[in-house]
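Take a sample.
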Amino acid sequence: MTELEGSDQLAELRDFIDRAEHSETETVLPGTDIRTLWVKVTPDLATVFLAVNTENRGQRVKHVSRIASDIRADRYRTTHMGVAFDSNGVMVDGQHRCLAIIEADAPAWLAVTTGLDTRSKLVIDIGAKRTASDFMPGRYKETRTGAIRVLLGIEFLGGSFSVGALAGAMNQITNAMIQEHWDRWGDLDDVTHLARNAARNTKGSSPAGLLAASMLYPEIGKEFLQGIAEMVGLASGDPRLALLKYNPPTKDRVLAAYAAIKPAQWMAQGRKMSVLRFTSREILHV
């Protein structure tokens, strides 16, 4: 059965929940009909839930794919956030989680709440969004988070990428993936500090993009960033000089990362570069 039938939609919904695998203890908010139960939401049950997803916000397909990726890779973490329905049995939260369970074809334990006020959807998910850097230790967390996102995006593409492809790949990198790889590149405080200083001396190059460039080429990473930061001893044709002449049409972080990686690669290869040029379709191999 893939959709709810009958006049009492909330009662039908609770019947499906009661027949699913769930915890023995149900929490009821005193003086209300609001109930919460831990439920193992299977793809079939997620389909039932989505049948009453009639008044929710628009679905974000890429967000669903990111959650599904985490579920398949066992990166998904159970939290207090789950699925919620109002007193009419209409879904007000959790559609993307349910869609991801179906896409991943794997179950997940979720807190399922029923009986919320019909106006509850007006105050759900309207606060400040948390980023991966909010949870991680150390200094310069935002810069390091951005650099790791760039590198994981490049790995996702197999090391060959255009600006457009990298932008799409970076959108598939979840906070859980960044956290999983946080310690992979070791202590980055020194080079991150250099990247931030170097960014002040270039047009359109973000600290995260410059850090990613130095992480891709660790043998010359510090030298590459130090030279940009101090702008001394740069001979004619030094690839780092090209960054000074780079004036991007936008402040897009993907363009900035691409623009930083290309001179770093040329420096690692001992090639000269006086002006930085590339198109959105140019393929860079790293």
Q: What stands out?
A: Strands lie at 22-28, 35-41, 83-86, 91-93, 108-116, 160-161, 284-285.
